Automatic annotation (TrEMBL):
Residues 66-86 are annotated as: Disordered. This is Uncharacterized protein. It comes from Brevibacillus choshinensis. Residues 69-86 have a biased composition (Basic residues).
Length: 86
């Protein structure tokens, strides 16, 4: 037996099981399971990161911006009210 650190009640010790107090529920939280990723998941994360980085670099190197209408704007012109075009 061991005293509960929270309320002082004696706790029965069972080998191979975590301690918990049935009076105050000390240490009753269920431990979170550790997700171990598979080799496929790790490869997928690397591929997504690599693709994302190459796409970002490609966009940074473009001279103009492509608008919603598909036309390139080399310089964003402010509207009359001060906002820029889309």
């Amino acid at each position: 037996m061991k005293p509960c650190p929270s309320c002082g009640t004696d706790i029965v010790i069972n080998e191979g099981y975590p301690l918990w107090c049935d009076r105050c529920d000390w240490n009753l939280a269920i431990p979170a399971k550790i997700h171990r990723s598979t080799s496929w998941e790790r490869m997928e994360v690397k591929m997504r990161h690599s693709y994302g980085q190459s796409l970002f670099k490609e966009l940074q190197e473009q001279q103009g911006l492509l608008t919603k209408k598909g036309m390139r704007n080399h310089h964003a012109r402010p509207r009359k009210n001060g906002a820029s075009h889309d």
